[in-house]
Write a structure and sequence with these properties.
By secondary structure, this protein is an alpha+beta fold. 41% of the residues lie in helices and 25% in strands. Strands 2, 3, 4, 5, 6, 7, 8 and 13 form an eight-stranded mixed beta sheet that branches. A five-stranded mixed beta sheet has the order 1-12-9-11-10. Strand 7 and strand 8 form a beta hairpin. Helix 3 crosses helix 5, helix 4 packs across helix 5 and helix 7 packs across helix 9. It is globular, with a radius of gyration of 21 Å. The structure holds 2-acetamido-2-deoxy-1-O-phosphono-alpha-D-galactopyranose (NG1).
Length: 399
């Protein structure tokens, strides 16, 4: 173990399904079925989802597993092994949204499915997750999607994966109170091992893009900071983009979202926009283009080009969108000095959270060492470094 690096050992990452099964049998009656959904990392396409644009995330190997048995009455009993807490809710009685606890995610997706007209059955559920919380790896979407799949399947109901993702998002909006985009639930529901997922956030269509990782590794570095600014600035950026669309639509009446504006068209009309709106819009228009280019490069196996596009993405998020921070910039700066790093950028909303890095496989150990030593020397805290192959989306698992 390197000093200052909290590494997640790959072998330890996989949840012991048999231990979960035994814990279930100790608490409830009946042999459980098991359902899993992964966390995710976004390779490129930041702050584009709410502009109707493109994102390119991949599912990671960390997962949330829900063990489930059907009950005839419509009560759902839930036990979280992560927090050692039990809870219960009744599908026939109104729930209590936004309690600020883990159950909001579980109950939220159940209520969202019922609101779509799907009659669920009662259930006994036990949850175990190894998706790190608060690292920007979308532990919440993993929980929503795994729970949704479990509840549907034991009730003998089937819906398509896009509808499952939408139920997770709806649960998060109404029950948790977070107005998230669709990226996280989409990749948790539809991710595919060995692939990234190019998501068209307006059309709600996903294309699996082969990601050959024989020579490269995706490494995620968690700064462990989350600045207060995060949610207020997120809302400000959304409003700035909408304002940009209003101004551009005066001369480009066909546009309804920044997704509709191409690079050349933007270059011809950007003089109409006041600062900082111009730079905010420039980021989104350029980022959509970079995301499509990165998907093409990935398909061709051109990982150097993917890395270059990731670097451009970070510069744009830092200088034009202004959602980076000292800690993220420092991680990127250190990463880009390391041999074998093809690309490095902040991932997620910004103002803290993690960077995503594309690193030559043979340079990974050196990368981890340099990042942790230099970051800790400057900021007196060790980043956590995770690595993952592109993993599978939600599914039932056999034990
Ligand atoms: P993170 O910071 O990973 O939760 C947030 C949004 C995404 C997207 C990104 C910016 C939530 C839950 N998710 O991601 O939908 O807009 O910022 O690309 O708010």
């Amino acid at each position: 173990m390197l000093s200052g690096v909290a590494e997640i050992d790959k072998a330890k990452r996989l949840i012991d399904r048999e231990a979960l099964r035994l814990a279930f049998l100790e608490r409830y009656e009946g042999e459980p079925r098991m359902f899993r959904a992964p966390g995710r990392v976004n390779l490129i396409g930041e702050h584009t989802d709410y502009n109707g644009g493109f994102v390119l995330p991949m599912a990671i190997e960390c997962e949330t597993i829900v063990a489930a048995v059907r009950r005839e009455e419509r009560r759902v009993r839930v036990y979280s092994l992560n927090v050692d807490e039990a809870a219960v809710f009744d599908l026939d009685r109104p729930g209590v949204p936004r309690r600020g606890i883990w159950l909001d995610y579980v109950e939220g997706v159940a209520r969202a499915l019922e609101d779509c007209g799907i009659q669920l059955s009662g259930a006994d559920l036990m949850i175990l997750s190894d998706v790190p919380q608060g690292a920007g790896l979308s532990s919440s979407a993993a929980l929503e999607v795994a729970t949704g799949l479990a509840l549907l399947t034991i009730a003998g109901k089937e819906i398509d994966r896009v509808a499952l993702a939408l139920a997770g998002q709806r649960g998060e909006h109404t029950y948790v109170g977070t107005l998230c985009g669709i990226m996280d639930q989409f990749v948790a529901a539809l991710g595919r091992a060995g692939h990234a997922l190019l998501i068209d956030c307006r059309k709600l269509e996903a294309t699996a893009v082969p990601f050959d990782t024989s020579s490269v590794v995706v490494a995620i570095c968690d700064t462990h900071v989350k600045h207060e600014l995060s949610s207020s600035e997120y809302n400000t950026r959304r409003a700035e983009c909408e304002h940009g669309v209003e101004l551009l639509a005066e001369v480009l009446p066909h546009i309804t979202q920044l997704r509709d504006v191409g690079l050349e068209e933007f270059a011809r009309h950007e003089f109409l926009l006041p600062e900082p709106i111009r730079r905010r819009c420039r980021h989104v228009v350029g980022e959509n283009e970079r995301t499509l280019d990165a998907a093409d490069a990935l398909r061709r196996g051109d990982v150097e080009e993917v890395g270059r596009l990731m670097n451009r993405s970070h510069e744009s998020l830092r200088d034009d969108y202004e959602v980076s921070c000292t800690e993220l910039d420092l991680l990127v700066q250190i990463a880009l000095k390391c041999e074998g790093v093809l690309g490095s950028r902040m991932t997620g909303a910004g103002f803290g959270g993690s960077t995503v890095n594309l690193v030559r496989r043979e340079q990974l150990e050196r990368f981890k060492q340099v990042i942790s030593t230099e970051y800790e020397a400057r900021l007196h805290v060790a980043p956590t470094i995770y690595t993952s192959e592109p993993g599978d989306g939600a599914r039932e698992i056999c034990i």
